[in-house]
């Protein structure tokens, strides 16, 4: 029997309209001055948030879904099991707020809201690959698989001894265990998208091995366990969990690909 699972989706990011001039927002959604809610950027007629929520629902795994973001996101929630919590200024605080809301669950799936190609299958594959004993599983994608799915994408890879990787946008978390280490959550979350910055946080020895391409994924796992005091695992994920929208180039690429264009 599968244990109960909650899902936390952070959706508080903003992008500048001047940097995203072709940004497409749903009808009735206004910009906040020069700022646009990133979760509501549209790809092929659907918002990024809508795509993530539809994928989570389709898994049939999440008893509860918590979205952390602006009040305007409420219209994309469907049932009493889906809750919107007010956003905070910092992304990592949104993560903590979301985890606090589901702290009584043994496991919580964490996703960002800017995954234009996320699928239920990709999420299920990640969940099934996570070891039962791990208290924190972090998604990473191998370059070969990512390039095959997203050829010529503007994404950036981390070069390590055992391959080139992208940091994914999904984690499977024991909420209570991680909340006890909230300060480290803040530090790690701020560096979530950069394995290089995570290596710096881990110490100069790790940083040196990373710079000389001697660092392995297992090395990062061991150091994370030393720092957090919990069982951590990096889990290879489908490319769809690693393609997010942080830059105008990534947004335009996603729009072209969704429209059937070449990367």
What does this protein look like?
With 263 residues, the chain is an alpha/beta fold. The chain has one domain (5-258): Spore Coat Polysaccharide Biosynthesis Protein SpsA, Chain A (Alpha-Beta Complex), CATH 3.90.550. The protein is built from ten helices and twelve strands. The strands form three sheets. Strands 1, 6, 7, 8, 9, 10, 11 and 12 form an eight-stranded mixed sheet that branches. Strands 2-3 form a two-stranded antiparallel ribbon. Helix 1 packs across helix 3 (120-129) and helix 2 packs across helix 6. The longest helix is centred in the first third of the chain and has 12 residues, at 48-59. It is globular.
Number of strands: 12
Instruction: Provide the CATH topology.
Output: Spore Coat Polysaccharide Biosynthesis Protein SpsA, Chain A
Structural class computed from helices and strand pairing: alpha/beta
Number of domains: 1
CATH superfamily: Spore Coat Polysaccharide Biosynthesis Protein SpsA, Chain A
The share of residues in extended strands comes to 15-25%
**String of helices and strands:** EEEEEHEEHEHEHEEHHHHHEH
């Amino acid at each position: 029997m599968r244990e109960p699972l909650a899902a936390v989706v952070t959706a508080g990011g903003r992008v500048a309209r001047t940097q995203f001039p072709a940004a497409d927002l749903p009808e009735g959604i206004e910009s906040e001055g020069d700022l646009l809610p990133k979760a509501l950027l549209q790809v092929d007629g659907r918002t990024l948030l809508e795509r993530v929520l539809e994928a989570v629902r389709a898994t049939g795994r999440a008893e509860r879904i918590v979205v952390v973001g602006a009040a305007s996101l409420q219209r994309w929630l469907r049932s009493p099991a889906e809750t919107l919590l007010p956003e905070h200024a910092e992304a990592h605080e949104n993560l903590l707020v979301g985890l606090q809301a589901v702290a009584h669950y043994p496991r919580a799936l964490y996703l960002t809201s800017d995954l234009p190609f996320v699928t239920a299958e990709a999420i299920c594959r990640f969940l099934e690959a996570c070891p039962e004993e791990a208290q924190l599983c972090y998604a990473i994608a191998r370059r070969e698989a990512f390039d095959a799915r997203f050829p010529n994408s503007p994404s950036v890879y981390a070069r390590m001894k055992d391959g080139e990787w992208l940091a994914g946008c999904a984690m499977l978390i024991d909420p209570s265990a991680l909340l006890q280490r909230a300060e480290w959550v803040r530090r790690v979350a701020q560096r979530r998208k950069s394995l290089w910055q995570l290596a710096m946080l881990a110490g100069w020895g790790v940083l040196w091995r990373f710079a000389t391409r001697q660092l392995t994924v297992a090395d990062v796992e061991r150091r994370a366990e030393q720092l957090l005091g919990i069982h951590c695992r990096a889990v290879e994920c489908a490319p769809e969990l690693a393609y997010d929208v942080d830059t105008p180039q990534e947004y335009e690429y996603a729009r072209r690909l969704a429209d059937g264009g070449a990367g």
